[in-house]
């Protein structure tokens, strides 16, 4: 009876080196992660989906996150809109769980805090670009209308920043006397009104114009100046002062 042929350890029976045993092949996305981190460290300008990948790396360590990042951008439109999206809508994307949502919301809160830091302890009228950046970071991508008030002291420094109301996708109820009452409580001498248009178009409506003029009419006799009313949206912003509406 013939014996089966002997094989040399480390070589396949058909000839040539045998695959190494016990060594798992490194996932293909590991090299991609290293390259993307290197590009970021070198100051490269990354498209939104790649910047989003960097955020997802820590929350999803054992999966290729590029398809997830692209799905998020396809659904919501941009990096800013992704991190501003409601948690329940983010969870609809395959691969997104509660820990990922938490990381995205931390990014959103960090962006707002950075923008707010640029206006804190400064004269707002001399740092108008920072005010606009803050308002856009805080409200431009919200899913519902919000009405925000920036209360200023006599040197036009920020006393308080408060959201006075949240409404529907195209309306927020605003009560001029309540606005002025709160300003008096805070000893504010000036106001900047801010609200968002979830549609993206910041063009003031006739209702916006009337509401603003009503607040000016109530505030003026009490020595409270309305410096501006800013409307923010995904497509930019509008200033009532710049448009000569107040």
From TrEMBL:
PROSITE patterns xref list: MPN, UPF0758
Annotated Low complexity bias:
9-22
Keyword rRNA-binding part of the UniProt annotation: no
Domain MPN residue range list: 124-246
The UniProt annotation puts the region (Disordered) at 1-26
Q: Carries keyword Glycoprotein?
A: no
Please provide an example of a Pfam family that matches this protein in its UniProt record: RadC
Which GO terms of the molecular function aspect are on file? metal ion binding; metallopeptidase activity
GO BP of this protein: proteolysis
Protein keywords: Hydrolase, Metal-binding, Metalloprotease, Protease, Zinc
Matching CDD domains, A to Z? MPN_DUF2466
Q: Which family is this sequence assigned to?
A: Belongs to the UPF0758 family.
Q: By what name is this protein known?
A: MPN domain-containing protein
| Source species of the chain | Methylobacterium terrae
């Amino acid at each position: 009876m013939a014996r089966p042929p002997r094989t040399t350890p480390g070589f396949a029976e058909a000839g040539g080196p045998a695959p190494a045993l016990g060594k798992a092949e490194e996932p293909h996305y590991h090299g991609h992660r290293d390259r993307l981190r290197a590009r970021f460290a070198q100051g490269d300008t990354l498209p939104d989906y790649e910047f989003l990948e960097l955020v997802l790396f820590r929350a999803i360590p054992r999966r290729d996150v590029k398809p997830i990042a692209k799905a998020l951008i396809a659904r919501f439109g941009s990096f800013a809109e992704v991190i501003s999206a409601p948690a329940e809508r983010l969870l609809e994307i395959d691969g997104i769980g509660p820990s990922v949502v938490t990381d995205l919301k931390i990014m959103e809160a960090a962006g707002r805090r950075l923008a707010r830091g640029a206006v804190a302890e400064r004269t707002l009228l001399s740092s108008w670009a920072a005010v606009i950046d803050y308002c856009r970071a805080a409200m431009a991508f919200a899913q519902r209308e919000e009405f925000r008030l920036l209360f200023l002291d006599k040197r036009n420094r920020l006393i308080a920043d408060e959201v006075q109301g949240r409404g529907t996708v195209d309306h927020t109820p605003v009560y001029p006397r309540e606005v002025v009452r709160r300003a008096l409580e805070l000893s504010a001498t000036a106001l900047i009104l801010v609200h968002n248009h979830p549609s993206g178009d910041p063009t003031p409506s006739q209702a916006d114009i009337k509401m603003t003029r009503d607040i000016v009419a109530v505030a003026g006799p009490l020595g409270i100046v309305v410096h501006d009313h800013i409307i923010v949206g995904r497509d930019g912003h509008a200033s009532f002062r710049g448009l000569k509406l107040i």
